Every structure is written in structure tokens, then in C-alpha cells.
Amino acid sequence: VVPFASFYKPLFSLLPHRETFTQDGHRMEMAVEVSRALSQRDPNLVLSSAFKLCITQRDLASLQEGSWLNDEVINFYLSLVMTRSSSVGQGLKVYSFSTFFFPKLHGGGHAAVKRWTKAVDLFQYDIILVPLHLGVHWSLAVNLPRFMGLYLREEHKARKHQDLDECKWTVGSLRASEIPQQKNGSDCGVFACKYADYIAQGRPLTFRQCHMPLFRKLMIWEILNQRLL
Predict the structure, then answer these.
(1) d(CA 125, CA 94)
(2) Residue 130 DSSP SS3
(3) Do residues 130 and 97 lie in contact, with contact meaning Cβ atoms separated by under 8 Å?
(4) Strand 138-142 and strand 53-56: pairing?
(5) Residue 41, exposed/middle/buried by CB under 10 A (0-12, 13-18, 19+)?
(6) How many distinct helices (H) and strands (E) make up the chain?
(7) Mean pLDDT, the chain, integer
(8) How is residue 179 annotated by DSSP?
(9) What span, in angstroms and rounded, lies between the C-alpha atoms of 86 and 92?
(10) Residue 127 CB partners (closer than 8 Å, separation 6+)
(11) Which residues share a beta bridge with 48?
(12) pLDDT number for residue 54
């Protein structure tokens, strides 16, 4: 296990936001908790359980530097993003699909996934997140990308019995220069999670590749404690 006490102090000062978690004592406690979790010898040991998901030591180990995040970690983290949005009274309402949604939609269309949102009215949300695994790369789709248009029109027709007025959905776009860019071959999953984290709060995407080592450690702590910083 590689401790992060040696590098977390300078990186913490660079973080775009985390102002209430900058005390040395708190940071050291977090570092110890993260290191303890990663040092567990049983890879099948469940270290966090919520949202009908279980995170094992093996899952958390995918958050170590150089590793690719797995479905369990991404689904758990995006569930934390949704939970935070539902607890903030005046904040953006966020819904996230699981990583298994898009392959099902892509393969079978609306009919294959309509049961997934049977108890959810997507049209009451401000932001919809869709994590995508494209071969060997994680990415994140937000709101109404082209491949979601037909699905949402059919979902609206089936649920509301009328056509979707797409003018009521504000869809913005960013230039590539405005989006933080991955500079290696392993941090795509972390970038996808942090895109979701920031967008769900209405924050500009001010983080960079240099933040990824610390973000990985913070994500472990957040998953263990089942709350976002």
C-alpha cells in the first residue's frame, strides 16, 4: 500500500474546492482510514454497502494509482452523487443510470430498458447522467446526447401519453478546451466520476490531471463513509 501522506498536502492546496476539509488533523485521519482499507488482505471483504451494492477490498483497490475503475465503484460513486442531490433542497435534481444501462439500451432500444425507470419520472430531473464504457475507456454522457434522444422521446410518450417538448430541456455544450483532459491511460473512470460530481453541483470543471492521485484517495474515503466531501 502506498500512503498518500507524502503528497496529499501540496495537492490538497490545489483542489478547486474542499475548503472545509483542509485541517491537518482531519486529513491525517482520512489518510489512515484509506490506508487501513487498502491493506486488508481479504479481497472479498465487504468494506461498504449501500444502494443495493457492496464494495469489497478488491473494488476499492481499483482506485489505487494506475488501476482502472470497475463498474461497482463507478455505480456506487454515482449513487452518492444522486443521494447528495436529493438531500440539497434547492440544488439540481440529478438522476444517474448504472453502467449496465447503455449496453442494454444500445442492444435493444427503449423496450429493453423501459422497466429500469418504471418507478422513476426522468422528466422531474434537471440532470441525467449516463456512464459509458467504450471498450477500454470510461466516459460520461450528460442530459440529452444524441443516442438518448429517441429513448427519452419514447419514455415520455409511454409515461405522459404525449410528445416530449424538447425545447423545455436546456442542453449546453462545452468546447474541448473547457473540459479537463486525461493525460494517461488509467484515469478515465476517475475523470468520469468527477465530471458527475462537479456537474451535479453546477460547478465549473476546474480540476486537472494533477488532481487525480488525490481524488482517487478521497473517493476511497467517500465510499467508505458513504458521503461526498
Answers:
(1) 6
(2) strand
(3) yes
(4) unpaired
(5) exposed
(6) 8, 5
(7) 80
(8) S
(9) 8
(10) 92, 93, 94, 95, 142, 143, 199, 200
(11) 55
(12) 98
Alpha carbon separation from 79 to 9, 178, 183, 186 (Å, rounded): 28, 26, 26, 22
pLDDT of the residue at 121? 80
Question: Containing domain of residue 152, as a range?
Answer: 5-225
Instruction: Tell me if 41 sits within 8 A of 60, measured CB to CB.
Output: no
* Region of residue 72 (left: phi > 0; alpha: psi -120 to 50; beta: else): alpha
String of DSSP letters for 50-99? ETTEEEEHHHHHTTSTTPPP-HHHHHHHHHHHHHHHHH-TTS--EEE--T
The closest of 57, 61, 37 to 45, measured between CA atoms, is 57
Domain count, the chain: 1
Q: pLDDT digit string (tens) for 37-57?
A: 999 999 999 999 999 999 999
Residue 196 pLDDT: 95
pLDDT in tens, 201-226: 888 898 999 999 999 999 999 999 99
Q: Which amino acid is at 64?
A: Q
Length, in residues, of the chain: 229
Residue 9's identity, in one-letter code, is K
Cβ atoms of residues 117 and 152 within 8 Å:
no
In three-state secondary structure terms, 182 is: coil
Torsion of the alpha carbons at 228, 116, 111 and 73, rounded to the nearest 10 = 40
| DSSP letter (8 states) at residue 46 | E
Tell how strand 46-50 and strand 53-56 pair up: antiparallel
- CATH number (domain holding residue 142): 3.40.395.10
Q: How far apart are CA 205 and CA 142, in angstroms?
A: 14
| pTM, to two decimals | 0.78
